TrEMBL record:
It comes from Marivirga tractuosa (strain ATCC 23168 / DSM 4126 / NBRC 15989 / NCIMB 1408 / VKM B-1430 / H-43). InterPro entries: Epimerase_deHydtase, NAD(P)-bd_dom_sf, NAD(P)-dependent_oxidoreduct. One of its GO terms (cellular component) is cytoplasm. It comes from the Bacteria. This is NAD-dependent epimerase/dehydratase.
Amino acid sequence: MKQSTVLITGATGLLGRQILFKLLGTEYQVYAVKRAHSTIPIESENLHWIEVNSINDDLFRLVPSQVDYVIHAAALVSYKKSDSSKLFKINRDWTSKLAQDAKKEGVKKFVFISSISALGKNATNNVIDENTPKSDREFLSNYGKSKRQAEEALWKFSSEGLPITIFNPSVIIGPANRYQSSAQLLGYVSDQKPFFTKGLINYIDVRDVAKIVVESLANNRINEQFVLNAGSISYKDFFSTVAKQLNVKAPSIGVPKFMVVFGAALENILSKISGNPAVLTMETAKMAGNKNIYNAKKANKAFNISYTTLEQSVQWTVKEMQKRGEL
């Protein structure tokens, strides 16, 4: 019997690495995409690395066999205004190109990792799910816009015969470079910054997302969208959980939104001086005070999910980042 082949993008990133770990415990032949300067995090007999230099490269021509499944986990995550054009080029245009190529190749399922940032915000009770109405008047970061437009492109190809599955995970907790993804939040606490914003953070462990993504390949559910979220917690309590694991003082001064905006402007100046990326930007400042809760009931029922607790996730993430010298 022929082994099924999986093509995965973003394989060296926070989520991509964990998806690879899960895939290597299966019978799939895996072709993982990496950029020329990225290091190879995992090697295995069933894992083959593909090096690309541009999003215009034809990935399917680089795989010697029929591709059965695509997991598109690559993305640019940025809330800097200067990255706007890059966001749409990578998150929207590349997704559209891959989907078009996948349709031509007869791929059995195209799995796309989107974000809760792409979901509609027009909820009367602050509870958001896959069906929450979208509005042109709601605030979306350029990252959220690029992901939403990528989803719209995928639904178009789905109507033309490409089987798709879209996942919208909340903030993914897991080990990464301290200036990337959710690791920035751990770095913020590690630096013993004193302030926190009065809002909620929705979270999920990276290993849980990876498990669900891999399980989705083998089931018969297609042309569906799923919010992935383990829970929500105030930023104050989230930072306290991280601080406890790091054995440092937690941020203890709550600030109103106007002060967050002012802080974003100040941090942007300091970032240019230090050369380190700013954790707080004008876009993240505008999202400050967000009290939305993301409802994952549909995914919980479909995949029978048992979530890693926030404490377990933070403990593992901190230990792994400390091993790497990131904290």
